[in-house]
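Troubleshooting log. The previous structure file for this entry was overwritten by mistake, so regenerating from the original sequence record. Sequence copied from the archived sheet and checked twice against the printout by T.R.
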Amino acid sequence: MNLAFKRTTCRVLVASLLTLSFHTAQAGLIGADRAAPATSPGSDRALVLGTLDRAEVAAQLQAAGVDPRAARERVATMTDREVHVLAQDIQNAPAGAISGWGWVAVILIAGLIWYYAIRK
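Regenerated output below.
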């Protein structure tokens, strides 16, 4: 039984390697405008103002004691360079973070894995 399982596994692996490895890659030159498109100050400002329009951002601003309208007015008075830096920060920020309950779940799952897999 063990030998038959090994043979079947090897055959499946060989077949999958043969069928999946025939993809070819093509390389070519692209223009500088496609490699790093320049952002206009208007698009950066629209990104920042669009972010301020989101309900969860407005809720977080209010929780911090900042009026969302005052934040929009502040963005309107910022220079193009400041708006560009802020837009880059928004685009490079992590998408989400783990909450307190998330950490509890991770620790609980790690504890269960340790208890059932390693301890026994």
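The CA atoms of residues 9 and 15 lie 10 Å apart. Archived copy saved in two places this time.
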